[in-house]
Amino acid sequence: MPTSRPPSGDAGGAAGGQYPSPSMGNPPVQGFSRYDDFTRLGSAGNYGETGLALSLIGATSPTLALQTPTTNRESGILRISTGTVTANEGTALGLPVAVYGAGPSIGMVYICKVRATSTSAIEVWSGFAGSAARVHVASTVEFIGFRALGGTGTPWQGVVKNSGGETTVDMFSSITIGTDWVTLGFRYLVKRSRNTAPIAYGVQFFTVDGDTDLSAIETDVGDLVTTSLPTGALLHLPLGIVTTDGSDKSAEIDFYSVGGKSRR
Description:
Blueprint: E1 34-36, E2 42-43, E3 46-47, E4 53-57, E5 63-67, E6 77-81, E7 89-94, E8 109-116, E9 122-129, E10 143-149, E11 156-162, E12 165-170, E13 182-192, E14 198-209, E15 217-225, E16 235-243, E17 250-259
Antiparallel strand pairs: 1-17, 2-3, 4-7, 5-6, 6-17, 7-16, 8-13, 8-17, 9-10, 9-16, 10-11, 11-12, 13-14, 14-15
C-alpha cells in the first residue's frame, strides 16, 4: 500500500518495546517522513508510491520508466531519460511544495540510493533545494544533498549550498559514474558540548553499506559542515537530471528515505 511513513528506527529500545520497524537506521520520526522504493511507476504528477511530480528544466518532458532489478540488492528502480534535447535541459522529480521552511529541520536524516547511467555531460542530484532547478557550481539555488557532475573530476559530492556559495565533501575516491550505485545520507545536527548551549548547526554526510548480513552500516565522511547552510524554504527532490550537451542522458533511483526526530 502507498505510504509516507518510512520504515525508520533503530533497535536501541527493543527491550522496552520501542522498536519501530527499522530499515536504514533513521531514528523514530517526529515530523516529515517519507519512503519510496519505486515499485510503482504512476503517471503525470503522481510518480512512485509517494506521489512525486516532475518539474521541467527546459521545455521538453523526459521519459520515466521502471527498470527490472538485476540483483537481490535491488527492489524497484525508476529511470529518468532526458531524450535528445537542447543543452542544459532536464527535470527534477520531487514534491511540488516546500517541506521545510527557513532551512532544514534539526534532527532530519536523509538516505538515497541513486546512479548516473551516463558518463559525461550530465548533472545528477538528490536532496533538498530551494527550487526545482540546476544545482551545479555556478547556480545560486539553495541545496543540501548529493550531486554528480559527469566529466568534471570526482563524481559524487555532498553539497551544502546557499545563494552566497557552496561547501562540498567528496563522498568516494573510486566510484565510476555511469556504472555504480551509491547509497548516501546526511544528518542535520546541532553540535554542542554536554549540558551547554549549541555551538553550531551543520550537515554530517555519510555513506551507507547495505550489502551486509547485519543492519546497514553508516560511515561518516568529512567533518560537520557548518558553512553555506540554506536559510530558505526547501523542496524535496529525490532525483534531478540535466544533460549539458543536449544528448540523451539518464539516471536511476532505487529508493529514498527521509525521517528523523526533528524539532517541530
